[in-house]
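Dear support,

We are seeing what looks like truncated structure output for some complexes. This example has two components. We would appreciate it if you could run it in full and send us the complete token output so we can diff it against ours.
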Amino acid sequence: MKKYCAVVAGVFLIILISSFKITLPADEEVSYPDGYRSWTHVKTSFLGPQHPNVNYRGFDHIYANDLAVQGYATGKFPEGSVFVVEVIEAVPVENYTSEAERHHMDVMQKDSLRYASTGGWGYAQFERDNSRRMLTLEQQKTCNTCHLKQNDHVFSVLRKVQ
Amino acid sequence: MKKYCAVVAGVFLIILISSFKITLPADEEVSYPDGYRSWTHVKTSFLGPQHPNVNYRGFDHIYANDLAVQGYATGKFPEGSVFVVEVIEAVPVENYTSEAERHHMDVMQKDSLRYASTGGWGYAQFERDNSRRMLTLEQQKTCNTCHLKQNDHVFSVLRKVQ
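Here is the complete output from our reference environment:
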């Protein structure tokens, strides 16, 4: 009986800890980037089928909204800047590689007040079907750890040719 | 002396024939697509270093202006629709493939009257430095030979996810 109680207590403890995972209130989450398909295409990287990170294999397209494009010129990204990394799976077709289905999307949005704890940028992920992929504040801080080493948290550079 | 004259006449003949290559008047040529870097990115194909066509190896990005984007929805592309295929050379970086320099650009523009002899679409190419690559009318007709088999001459399909 003692053993049974210990197991039940253990399960409760796990549930309790899980419920305390720190997440942002829903109205502070980075929203789905409506209309990003008509934003500026910054660049694409191609990750082959042997790449160690299965989540990013294929075409990794980066899109920037108008505010983010302004930021490339000045080196400082205005409030409201949004970047999308859309990962599209790759499929071999004859002698080249074509796009297939979307795998997922990463989104980062500049809001210095709302996302102060992650360097002024909020981070979100969306699945193939547009649904939100749960990201705890801890996971967003992990995003920030890499991004903060870059120029105003942005890795990419806009190809200059117009 | 006779031999010398024959050579000179031959050279003149070659120059004469060359000058009669049929080209469009300058004001009817498809112009450089100013601002295409902020147009909608339709899709990307990746052609590896073994692809037989050296001119298209790397990232082949397709961009469409607003009129062309409308055409994807209706299946009929309005006058003034413009597509760009920008070929960006690829370079291996660690465990992925990155964009390098532009190789060249292909441009097609819808103008049913001006380009009636090539199916209502004009074709042009631009070099890495934006300068025009000479395309004779005969070469443009070769473009048309493949394109006319497609829906209103357009091969690509716009990824639906918005």
